[in-house]
Each structure stands twice: as structure tokens, then as C-alpha cells.
Specification:
Layout (H helix, E strand, L loop, with lengths): L1 E4 L5 E4 L1 H7 L3 H5 L9 H13 L6 E10 L5 E13 L2 E10 L1 H23 L5 E3 L5 E4 L2 H5 L6 H4 L11 H7 L1
Antiparallel strand pairs: 1-2, 1-5, 3-4, 4-5, 6-7
Length: 175
């Protein structure tokens, strides 16, 4: 948590947790601006964001930001800030939450989903998922080619898989 001056962007106060997380002493923090904890490539983004913000907004949730620690490591943080007046200066009280692990997990999930989608859409056999009762939840687009256009993926989703078997007892034997 910290307070910074809206005019100069200088830190005015910082709590102990921030000094521990970021690696700066309190005195080091108080000699810096909020730009100093941003990687160089993020400073323009910050400037644009600050320019667009109405100074009269009392609080707002921010997007996820990339911050730089004293040792050069970078972390993703979610910011919540509130406008305050401190000694007749317009300031912001900022609560910063490290969400680096969440960002990494979301990125890994997205990559996994994209990989699955590429495999799913390019598989040469028919892949499908059903409920225990046999209702089709998902079926690969290859069904259209392998059924010689008799079936489309969209028309089969939500239908029973039993209708795709020549011999409906064949499915019963697979269960």
C-alpha cells in the first residue's frame, strides 16, 4: 500500500509490506515516483492511463499492471486506488495485489485451450464428447468430411450419439 501525489507522481508514504515486496527501503520509495516501479515499456501506457483518468474520480479498479522490483524482477499487480487529499494535495491511496501466479495460470490455460482447439479442429478422425446419457456435447468438425456431408457439427451438438451408430447395440457394448 502506498500514497502518491497526483501532481508529481512521487510517493508520499508506503507501508512495510510494500517495502518487503518491492525490495526498496522506505527512504528509497519516498525518493521515487510511480513511474520508477514500472518497466520502461510500461511507462507510456501508465502516462496514457493517467491522462485519461478524471482527477475527480474517487476510486476505481485498475487493469492488471506490470511492476518492476528493485532486483529487476517483474510482477503483475492488480491496483485499487482512492483519491484522497493529504495536506491539501490531491493524492491517491493505492492497494496493490500481486497476481503474478494467477496471470501465469491464465496464460497456461489459454495456451492449453488453443493447443486443444488446433488439435480438435484438425483431427482426421471423429472425436466427440457426450454426457453419460449419450447427448453430444462436442464433436470434431471432421464429422462433415467423414460423413460425406450427411452431418454437420452444429446440428449434432445436443443430439444423441446413438443416432450415429449403424447398430445402436454397438454403443451399448462400448459402455
Amino acid at each position: 500500500m502506498w500514497v502518491y501525489d497526483l501532481t508529481t507522481l512521487k510517493f508520499i508514504d508506503v507501508n512495510k509490506e510494500a517495502t518487503i515486496k518491492y525490495g526498496y527501503t522506505r527512504d528509497e520509495f519516498l525518493s521515487m515516483t510511480i513511474k520508477d516501479i514500472r518497466p520502461q515499456e510500461e511507462i507510456k501506457k501508465l502516462e496514457n492511463y493517467l491522462d485519461q483518468r478524471n482527477k475527480d474520480v474517487t476510486h476505481y479498479d485498475s487493469q492488471i499492471w506490470l511492476h518492476k522490483l528493485k532486483d529487476g524482477a517483474e510482477i503483475f499487480v492488480k491496483i485499487l486506488s482512492h483519491k484522497i487529499d493529504l495536506e491539501e494535495r490531491p493524492c491517491r491511496l493505492v492497494i496493490s495485489e500481486d497476481v503474478s501466479e494467477l496471470v501465469k495460470k491464465e496464460k497456461a490455460l489459454k495456451e492449453s485451450e488453443e493447443r486443444y482447439k488446433r488439435i480438435f479442429e484438425n483431427i482426421l478422425d471423429v472425436y466427440y464428447e457426450t454426457t453419460i446419457e449419450g447427448t453430444i456435447l462436442e464433436i470434431s468438425p471432421s464429422i462433415e468430411i467423414l460423413s460425406s456431408g450427411q452431418y454437420t457439427r452444429d446440428e449434432l451438438i445436443g443430439k444423441s450419439i446413438v443416432g450415429l451408430y449403424y447398430d445402436t447395440m454397438e454403443r451399448e457394448n462400448l459402455c
